[in-house]
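quick q for whoever's on today - can somebody do inverse folding on this one?? i tried earlier but teh output was garbage lol. tokens:
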């Protein structure tokens, strides 16, 4: 059977013209992919970013169990504007699981004694890694504890009549020698 290319071209042209005349088809083929999808992806990105900013700006509610055993650390936490220290009401663990608080810091009875005697004090921080607010609270508390730890180290160094440089025997300065053109890949 011989194909007649003239007839095939004629049918193809008629179908193409019929498709272009149909407004719904043009909308589905052109308008939606060119306008709707980019707007959809920008909207998803925008709202995701706004939710993340909102979580970062929110105050983290935490419960400290054994606050009386580390008053200086508790003061560090209370002085932070992004952390609200709540009194333990009921079961702290269930409050954390319900999302009523974002973290629980447990301070053992011998914490202050160990710190003053030059030993390492242990803390337990409970949080819910599946919740963004709880993870943010964990990061904030870790940062404050690092600051507190640095202060303790400086106190211990001064008690031993050592300079701060004693614990930092090396300082490395890195210098980039690449030209700006090389950095941009030009």
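ok took a stab at it. sequence:
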């Amino acid at each position: 059977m011989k194909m007649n290319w003239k007839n095939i071209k004629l049918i193809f042209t008629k179908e193409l013209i019929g498709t272009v005349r149909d407004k719904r088809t043009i909308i589905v083929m052109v308008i939606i992919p060119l306008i709707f999808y980019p707007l959809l992806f920008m909207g998803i990105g925008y709202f995701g970013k706004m939710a993340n900013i909102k979580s970062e700006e929110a105050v983290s509610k935490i419960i400290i169990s054994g606050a009386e055993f580390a008053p200086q650390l508790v003061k560090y936490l209370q002085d932070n504007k992004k952390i609200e220290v709540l009194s333990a009401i009921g079961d702290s663990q269930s409050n954390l699981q319900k999302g009523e608080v974002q973290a629980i810091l447990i301070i053992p009875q011998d914490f202050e004694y160990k710190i003053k005697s030059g030993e390492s004090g242990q803390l337990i921080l409970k949080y819910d890694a599946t919740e963004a607010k709880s993870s943010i609270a964990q990061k904030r508390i870790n940062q404050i504890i690092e600051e507190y730890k640095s202060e303790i180290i400086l106190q211990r160094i001064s008690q031993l009549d050592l300079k701060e440089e004693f614990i930092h025997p090396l300082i490395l300065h890195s210098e980039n020698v690449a030209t700006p053109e090389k950095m941009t890949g030009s």
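fwiw The helical segments are 5-21, 23-57, 71-79, 92-98, 111-116, 132-159, 180-184. also The beta strands are 60-65, 83-86, 103-106, 124-127. so keep that in mind when u check it
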